[in-house]
Amino acid sequence: LIATEIKPFTLFVGSAKGGVGKSTVTLGLAKAMQRRGVSVGVIDADIHGPSLLTLANFEGRHVFSASKKIVPLIHEGIQYISIGAIVPQYEAIAWRGVMAQRAVLQFLKDVDFNAIDVILIDLPPGTSDIHFAVCQQTDPKAAILVSTPDQVGVNDTVRFYNFLKRMSIDVCGIIYNMTHMSCPSCRHTIYLHDTHHSFPLNEVKILHQLPWSKDLSSHFDHIIQELSHHDYLSKFLIS
Ligand SMILES: Nc1ncnc2c1ncn2[C@@H]1O[C@H](COP(=O)(O)OP(=O)(O)O)[C@@H](O)[C@H]1O
Ligand SMILES: [Mg+2]
Fold first, then answer.
1. Is the CB of 212 under 6 A from ligand 1?
2. Is residue 43 a contact partner of residue 151, using CB atoms and an 8 Å limit?
């Protein structure tokens, strides 16, 4: 019997900008996929600002397996790998690009993920060595854009989109984050930006507009429903 290895599908979550909700979206998507029975691994590729474990609300340290591979941390059925679980908390990770890139390459190659269908990669802001590394070293793959609906956020995200196009990476769509909130007393919708600046390129599908909220889980279920129409992801996301 020959065991055929099915490669997990890699989904990047990115934007060129910090603070727009990339990590929040990565985590929300991971949990929503897990609720649908998909086996998910999450790579925190934000080497200089690892925040995934904090957002996921758990702690842990990585250990190495007998085969010298990094053992992911498992929390609520999701497998995680983060530099935050290797270096001491609050330590400044003042690594040059090559070092950070090497760490991410190790996350891609030397992690003992257990039977995963999808790898979500939480990317750092910018278009750095790390982005090149993940783009070149993963297959099959696609990306999701995250942006706040303001001019600065959208401009950076367009730059990131152009980078992905140059790397021939399929973009599933854009998620606008923190666009509105519901008034706690009267439930009236409050828009948090004067104008909703949209992506100037209409080839990018709008997947969702996430409100400012503590509980976004139903929104992520909705996004997963949208993603289930994607050629590759449909294999894993059948309801
Ligand atoms: N839709 C949202 N509602 C409420 N808080 C949010 C939302 N999206 C992000 N946040 C918060 O905003 C901060 C930045 O989000 P984060 O996901 O860390 O951004 P990034 O990874 O792009 O730097 C975090 O404290 C996060 O909890
Ligand atoms: Mg982040």
1. yes
2. no
